[in-house]
Amino acid sequence: MFSRETYISRRNELKKRVGSGLILFIGNDETGCNYEDNTYDFRQDSSFLYYFGLPYAGLNAIIDIDNDREIIFGDELTIDAIVWMGNQPTLHEKAGMVGIDTTLPAADIKGYLEKAAKSGQKIHYTPTYRAEHKLKLLDWLNIKPGAETPSVDLIRAIVDMRSHKTEEEIAEIERACNVTADMHIAAMKALRPGMHEYEIVAVIESVAAANGCRLSFPTIATTHGQTLHNHAHHHIVKPGDMLLIDAGAETPMGYAGDMSSTICADKTYTSRQKLIYDLQVASHLASVAALKPGVPFKDIYELSCTVVCQGLKDLGIMKGDPAEAVAVGAHAMFYPCGLGHMMGLDVHDMENLGEVWVGYNGEPKSTQFGRKSLRLARPLEPGFVHTIEPGIYFIPELIDYWGSEKRFADFINYAELEKWRDFTGVRNEEDYLITADGARRLGKKIPLTTEEVEALR
Ligand code: GLY
Ligand code: MN
Questions:
Q1: Which ligand is nearest to the CA of 217?
Q2: Ligand 1 atom nearest residue 247's Cα
Q3: What is the mean pLDDT of each run of 10 residues along the chain (457 residues)?
Q4: Per-residue pLDDT, 378
Q5: Would you say the CB of residue 429 lies under 6 angstroms from ligand 1?
Q6: Which one of 204, 219, 229 would you pick to mutate in the ligand 1 pocket, going by the greatest count of ligand atoms within 8 A of its CB?
Q7: What single-letter DSSP state applies at residue 256?
Q8: Ligand nearest to the CA of 220
Q9: Residue 246 C-alpha to ligand 1 middle, in angstroms?
Q10: Does ligand 1 lie within 6 Å of residue 258's CB atom?
Q11: Residue 231: other Cβ atoms inside 10 A
Q12: pLDDT recorded at residue 43
């Protein structure tokens, strides 16, 4: 955990920004996987971690701004729990570590909230993303699932604070990024044709475990890289394949890394693979070069798309004016996702608070296929941490679907594209911090160019 002063000052700042009412932080509980006692790996809610630091199940918290009280609600461990799970500091001791004096039994939160609601106090809470959150709101405040009204004032305050990473947070993220880079480098060294994808997953995930980290999201390691989030790992990697890896570590404090690489199964990429791979790298590097405060990330996305369209035009796969192709959305045949997303205590940082607040500062999002998947669009500010991950994908189902309608036939050369339908996909991803006058890559460099990857094969 950070020092108690960090959590005290974060809460003081939040109180100032929200101004009045009561802020309810719903902590996460243990969740049974296939029976109650066989639980999913416990993960605390990220905003709870940000303001209260405590990575324990069974806690909820209130910041009662109007009555100047901060309370953590939870129960002491029973003797049975201690026998099976071991002892822990008392709840009061845990709360003390993050600067909270008042703890109350878990069951008392209902009465506290009922009283606050009766007295007309505004109760601020964030959007729910687990069934247990909805059940708690139903139990405590009789708010029916689906009828929640999260507080926009609270969301905006949290998003603004969590978006600007402090030095101590950047050090933690950089730790996650260094482990993440080692996960990719180990995979680059270990991959051989004939291996199953899951053998590489084992290599990747063992690096995280060996560094005291867990995963920031389920590992992607696939020879079918055209499927953006492919979690199947059972294929054999054949000569001539590429293995697309998207994997990241999460530090014990909850900070994430997130990188992608696309590795040739053989010692070198084929000349055909290089054509698309080099184009992805060109789009990636053009995006990185454009990073600086004040530039809307949306503009960098448009740039990354235009580079891809120009390159595909040079290969005869696209035609027409690349900028026009991007404006109408024709690029999404090959690049149907965004350029990157915020990263911090969540791999897609604060996504549960609403993309429109995190990535768009309340501005409306595009609904156009491809462009609608851009998670970050707002002007960049110093302290933002985000990924850069343009991709080029050949998705047979999309080729057939759009091809049957001749969609964007002014920009897509379907006859040429047919020759590429089994190419799969290329994505490389790095993590960046926006600085006062530019950007800095976080963590060790992973091989990016074909020469850099081939040097490890
Ligand atoms: N690393 C997975 C993603 O960014 O969506
Ligand atoms: Mn990512």
A1: 1
A2: 1
A3: 98 98 98 96 98 97 98 95 90 97 98 98 98 98 98 98 98 98 98 98 98 98 95 96 98 98 98 98 98 98 98 98 98 98 98 98 96 98 98 98 98 98 98 98 98 97
A4: 98
A5: no
A6: 229
A7: B
A8: 1
A9: 7
A10: yes
A11: 12
A12: 98
Binding site membership of 351 for ligand 1 (Cβ less than 6 Å): no
Contact 215, 248 (CB under 8 A): yes
